[in-house]
Design brief:
Blueprint: H1 2-19, H2 24-34, H3 38-43, H4 45-49, H5 52-56, E1 61-70, E2 76-87, E3 93-99, H6 105-121, E4 128-133, H7 142-156, E5 165-169, H8 175-189, H9 210-228, E6 237-241, H10 245-256, E7 260-265, E8 269-272, H11 279-288, H12 296-299, E9 304-307, E10 318-321, H13 330-338, E11 343-345, H14 354-363, E12 366-368, H15 370-373, H16 376-389, H17 396-420, H18 427-445
Parallel strand pairs: 3-4, 3-5, 6-7, 6-10, 10-11, 11-12
Antiparallel strand pairs: 1-2, 2-4, 7-8, 8-9
The structure holds glutamic acid (GLU).
Glutamic acid (GLU) binds at residues 94-96, 115, 168, 170, 198, 349, 377-378, 381.
Amino acid sequence: MSEIIDEKIEGLFQAVVKRNPGEVEFHQAVREVLESLGPVLVKYPEFGEHKIIERICEPERQIIFRVPWQDDRGQVQINRGFRVQVNSVLGPYKGGLRFHPSVYLGIIKFLGFEQTFKNALTGMPIGGGKGGSDFDPKGKSDSEIMRFCQSFMTELYQHLGEYTDVPAGDIGVGAREIGYLFGQYKRITNRYESGVLTGKGLDWGGARARKEATGYGAVFFLNEMLRVRGQSLAGKTCIVSGAGNVAIYAIEKLQQLGGKVVACSDSNGLIHDKKGLDLALIKQLKEVERRRIEDYVFHRKHARYVAKGNLWEIPCEVALPCATQNELNGKDAAKLIKNGCLAVAEGANMPTTPEGVRAFLKAGIAFGPGKAANAGGVATSALEMQQNASRDAWDFEFTEKKLSAIMTGIHQRCYETAEEFGTPGNYVNGANIAGFIKVAKAMVALGLI
Ligand code: GLU
């Protein structure tokens, strides 16, 4: 029986590859989920009859558009904009916007696919989608960013709405960009529709703890993985890749829970500070001055900066990849394991390659996949939507408590599902299966749509 199912799943995967040529990240994300689903199709034959996998792998709608804008020299620039609305059986499409030169359809589709299961895992009423552009915000002035965002929204607004599709930030999109996007949406529609975007500034409809949520959430998840193994973060040496929003607040929570974070990175290089990272300095450099991480060593002379260095070679007990997809490969995983790493939680989306994931699972270390571990960001976006809908604003402590409870819930769902389907401790299977079943059941219930 299971061999027939495995063959069937392989066939479905090959069909996805054929239908979506060249979109390697999308193929990777689909393969990873499909590999967990054999036992699910045995338990729920109706998912096969209703062609749930075939339908889930085909986004409900894909929008690709031209984004023309003028730079500060008056030159016309053209970028490409995307919004892929993957699945809306659990709620309005929900997922961030990524502005980065590497963006193309395959990246947005992989992110939207992951987002669908991640959002389902949160237990909140949100569907899955993702968008963005190949626009590179690096080195652009505030006015250039504003003009780009205005042009982007001038096309995108017609596809959005608090009950339709609710974007937020991702790489290259923070409160500044969300502000320009929201301003343009408001102007075009003549509606103050707070719930149409999340990650807003606190003065105009944003939620407390949203900025911190993805990083904090990843550490809450990590903490749960350690707890069930009878361990804790206290005194553990940690490394975190990235120096953006996710990394910064992962470092903050690790430090609050007693971890010693000795390294982080950006796309140019890494910093290694054996005394423990000075987070206030990192925040000043990254959030206020928008500088590169290299400048850290001008202020902390004993720390070292390694241009193009490999972060994963730094010995640690806990590693959090919080930068971008496929940043940690099989060799890196082997190095981490050899150096005594006990736990990895993914703050970024799909940062570990399939070889890396296999190595972690084989070594039996605690491995929290992004779908589960980084779901705190989007979960807190759903809390922002709740506050917008009720015209309320909760305080930080209350919101953080909710986030913590949500992450504990996600951990438990993954843990129990992994056990139920015969792979105890395998959070990859737990997350894929629990997220998939939730979406699949709703798809069956809502009929052929
Ligand atoms: N971009 C984030 C993610 O990958 C957050 C999405 C959201 O808040 O809608 O989950």
